[in-house]
Design brief:
Layout lengths: L16 E7 H10 L1 E6 L13 H10 L4 H10 L3 E8 L5 H7 L5 E7 H7 L9 E4 L1 E3 L17 E3 L7 E7 L11 E5 L2 H4 L2 E4 L5 H13 L5 E4 L9
Parallel strand pairs: 6-7, 10-11
Antiparallel strand pairs: 1-3, 1-4, 2-3, 2-9, 3-8, 4-10, 5-8
């Protein structure tokens, strides 16, 4: 379930709109399993995930001289943290469609911060926290390390376009748990999904297929075709 952490920043408005762009196969897996996949933090394409900026690393390295396990812990902790990434935006993002869907058969889930928090209620095995990502200069700026989640809430400025908010789960307290590629958590799909948007370059048959599949699986979500490719007025 979702737990509030006063050290983790979130938009003040629970109605802040967020998006998740994904392929049809991942979307169907979500509906059929009623579980949300969270990727292990060190499996992301960005190799800096869960690491520290240079000024912070230098400070930790000095502290580790007399306690080598201190630095070792931070290095291995990445293997115990799972993340689900969402994009903050009032509107659809053409860039997100391009980056996070493999072809014209992708979808986007529209939700809100508040709905995301409520959707995590069914999960009783792992704790979830939700935070907005901060974008900094890793060569100059400092990442605090007085909270274990801070390394997972900072990214390099070159990723600012992502405008990311993320769910974070730390399984370190469960010593018998080993994350391979990631973790699946129980979610309330009626809370998680407010609307479904179909890829702007998809054909009508694809939209009809998605509608049919969603209906057969017992859901009645609002499904809309992206208006990024709507007819021009001139």
């Amino acid at each position: 379930m979702y737990l509030n952490n006063p050290n983790i920043k979130l938009p003040d408005d629970p109605d802040t709109i967020i998006w998740k762009y994904l392929d049809l196969s991942k979307f169907l897996d979500l509906l059929m399993s009623r579980k949300l996949f969270m990727s292990r933090s060190d499996k992301f394409e960005d190799q800096y995930e869960g690491t520290f900026s240079e000024p912070t690393y230098e400070e930790i390295r000095k502290l580790s001289i007399d306690n080598p396990d201190f630095l070792k812990f931070y290095k291995t902790h990445r293997e115990k943290v799972a993340i689900s990434s969402w994009h903050i935006n009032e509107y659809e993002s053409f860039a997100m469609w391009q980056i996070f869907t493999q072809n014209s058969e992708g979808l986007a889930i529209q939700s809100t911060i508040g709905r995301l928090q409520n959707a995590l209620a069914p999960e009783n095995n792992y704790k979830q926290y939700i935070g907005e990502v901060n974008y900094i200069d890793y060569k100059k700026e400092y990442i605090p390390f007085d909270d274990m989640f801070f390394p997972f809430l900072f990214k390099r400025k070159s990723f600012q376009y992502e405008r990311e908010v993320r769910i974070i789960s730390d399984v370190a307290e469960k010593s018998n748990i080993t994350l391979n590629d990631g973790l699946k958590i129980n979610v309330d799909l009626s809370q998680l999904i407010e609307k479904i948007y179909i890829h702007p370059k998809s054909e009508n048959w694809y939209k009809n297929l998605v509608i049919q599949l969603v209906k057969q699986l017992g859901f009645d979500f609002t499904i809309e075709k992206s208006d990024l490719e709507s007819d021009i007025l001139i």
